[in-house]
Amino acid sequence: DAGVIQSPRHEVTEMGQEVTLRCKPISGHDYLFWYRQTMMRGLELLIYFNNNVPIDDSGMPEDRFSAKMPNASFSTLKIQPSEPRDSAVYFCASSLAISGNTIYFGEGSWLTVV
Amino acid sequence: SQKIEQNSEALNIQEGKTATLTCNYTNYSPAYLQWYRQDPGRGPVFLLLIRENEKEKRKERLKVTFDTTLKQSLFHITASQPADSATYLCALGDHKLVFGAGTILRVKS
Fold first, then answer.
1. Of A100, A103, A105, the CB nearest to B51
2. Which of A15, A32, A76, A84 has its CA 20 to 30 A from that of B53?
3. Rounded to whole angstroms, how far apart are CA atoms B28 and A54?
4. What span, in angstroms and rounded, lies between the C-alpha atoms of A85 and A38?
């Protein structure tokens, strides 16, 4: 399997622009997670889905952030409008089962908002 | 509130020695604890999982202990090599995996 695939790998955008990050989970995985990593806050869980349904979005920082999973093989994380403080690495991850199972991470999308 | 603490300072050791990393947690009663490795510019990679009823788990040169009374896990790498240099993250949670900030390990030859 190719693993979790994220795009773009790097994005530089101007403040106020819309940013869309994309993720293809490992085939057959039931759960999909979006994490954000910064030096200050470490790795934070933003939202996770089970069978395409959002289960917990309590980590989404504010209304500017939204995530969707229209089907089992695709998810997006959107930031609109983007702000410099959104600059971070955004990781998508997937797993077979939620409790006590391995989470497989993508290589991340490096976002810089100037 | 729930908190996971890992050594914020980097751990520098000599090749061949045993590296020991610490993960302490508060306000959790996790059924599982996991350790991940993260290299610069890459996503975290799973290493080991230990359950609350297990005291110790081994995989090749890696060993993890889990003390639910002390609320602490220790992660050991024996016969360390420069290739073991990375950031090591512990993670807790049953339905939501929460990560510690990680400890940087540097193994010098």
1. A100
2. A32
3. 24
4. 10
**Any idea what DSSP says for residue B56?**
E
In chain B, the residue whose alpha carbon lies closest to the alpha carbon of A47 is: B96
Peptide bond before B44: cis, by omega within 30 degrees of 0?
A: no
Q: Can you list the alpha helix ranges (DSSP code H) found in B1-109? A: none
**Rounded Cα–Cα distance for residues B11 and B86 (Å):** 10
A99 and B49: CB-CB below 8 Å?
A: no
Question: What's the length of chain B?
Answer: 109
pLDDT tens-digit series, residues B27-62: 888 888 999 999 999 999 999 999 988 989 999 999
Q: Concatenate the DSSP letters of all residues of A58-112 into one string.
A: TT--STTEEEEEEETTEEEEEESS--GGG-EEEEEEEES-SSS---EE---EEEE
**Over 70: is that where the pLDDT of A1 sits?**
no
Contacts of B89 (CB under 8 A, 6+ apart): A43, B6, B35, B36, B37, B38, B44, B99, B100, B101, B102
Among A100, A104, A106, select the one facing B49 at the smallest CB separation.
Answer: A100
Residue type at position A64: R
Nearest to B40 by CA among B108, B109, B102, B94: B102
Nearest residue to A93 (alpha-carbon basis) of A23, A22, A11 = A23
Is residue A91 a contact partner of residue A98, using CB atoms and an 8 Å limit? no
CA distance A33 to B91: 14
Structure tokens at B88: 């090591």
Dist CA B97 CA B87 (whole Å): 18
Contact A32, A6 (CB under 8 A): no
